[in-house]
Amino acid sequence: GLPIRLRPEIDQPVTRPSLQENYDRMVADLTLALSLLPVTSVEKSFPTVYAAHALLSKIHLVTGDYTKSLEHGEEVLRGNYSLMDYNTINPTPLRPFTNFNSEM
User: Residue 102: pLDDT above 80?
Assistant: First the structure.
């Protein structure tokens, strides 16, 4: 497991929880984030509820809980996304993709 500091005091001893305790903490934090994050964001670089679902899906996939992974993955796919048409992109510039494009 990784050391997780849950309080800001620097004099608190840092313990190394088990890997399962790390995963449990991440799932608990992300479950709380689901109720706090917006569905859409004002900036493309700000997280939304779909980012929390995506990370929860990945964590459940890694831990072998495929049912929950699928549930969160399906929630991500319910998002309002638009794909870029790669046939319309000019490949000659050094950086053919703009920052904060529609797929970000």
Answer: no
